[in-house]
Here is the input.
Amino acid sequence: MVTKTEESQLNKLENQVENGGGGAWEYLCLARKLKVRRSDKVLKYGLSILNDSRKRSSLGPDEWTLYEQVAVAAMDCHAVDVAKDCISALQKKFPESKRVGRLEAMLLEAKGSWEDAEAAYSSLLEDNPFDQVIHKRRVAIAKAQGNISAAIEWLNKYLEIFMADHDAWRELAEIYVSLQMYKQAAFCYEELILSQPTVPLYHLAYADVLYTLGGLENLQTAKKYYSSTIDLSGGKNNRALFGICLCTSAISQLARGRNREDKDSSSDLPSLASAALEKEYKLHASDKLSVLTSTLKCLRVSS
Amino acid sequence: MAGTGGGELKYEMAQNAYIKLVLHALKHKTSAVNGVLLGRTSPKNESLVQIEDSVPLFHNHLGLLPPLEISLIMIEEYYSARGLGVVGYFHANERFDDTELGNISKNIADHISRYFPQAAVLLITRSLKLYQKGKTAALLCRFVSYASMAF
Here is the structure.
């Protein structure tokens, strides 16, 4: 996961290179470090370096890392021939390498020969059963074929071994949400919150899933997690502010027929949230302020 | 601009609406995207629905309720002042060869058709297909020829 500062730094570099200001190698290094998926740009800039023999030799030993990066980007952009060329260059340099073998298997996957790729990955895993990338490629194959239940199975097996892989937990949660299996998605977010309790993104996603599940208890818990998101993000998170207003409205709708005994004593929370939202809108989108006020009114009216 | 036919109901889609949807899908090539279609029934012809505009919604976590609720309320507020209402839903799947209308899209489209019975669902695939809700027969119409004309 990438922070805002890292992302803006990456975008700045991208703009710079795009407008002819140089810095392609820095961009590629940063993209590799942050593990972002900007394959079309990586492919373009990487090829411009690799095709120029002077620039290529000035890289020294990093040349081969660049070949690997460009190969993966080419496969993502479906430029299979480019990928093939990069991989053959790597094969010539490192003939018995497992890392190159992994790239070859990925090439099979990119071409769509699923069974061959599966076989290649299984044989690679026999030699090195703890290669995280290969495990995840297996999940990707299942997903690409449309076999979501197999993808879930593989991903669960992977997470039993590598419980600390946060991106994998997030991917699993997103798959569950897309299948509307909200309880299981909630479990994934709970794991993420337990291991990284200060990341507001997980609190926000967990609150969203709880709200979607519905029911009075879930709504009240969702409200708490929206509040913790606002706390952790310094009050800047608009989605969490909206979430508070939605939760309040939904809770009071549910509690209308029941006893009002356990009504929230923090009844100034929604008004604080709406005030914060209005301030944000005045600052950034003042022409949409009227839409915001009527939306907030609608939520309060329906409560 | 593009016209489609079948049964008694027809849909007309403005170029602006169409372009916004396609660009949104293109910008987020690696995820499923969705959005709403806005328009009205033609005052001259009740069986013609004019899709004047569209609003792209999300490109991740399509199945979560809070952002959807807020955005639908805001869109209704904004566009009812301009005389347009929500007339449909559009969706593009994550994989290019997936032409199924998933559960999430069905639920959202059901919800929309409760307020606007002639609601349409636009599923963007390699060629465009238009599914109509609220009628027993599903209509499949191709926008491909118009797409090449529009660009």
Chain B has one domain: 10-148.
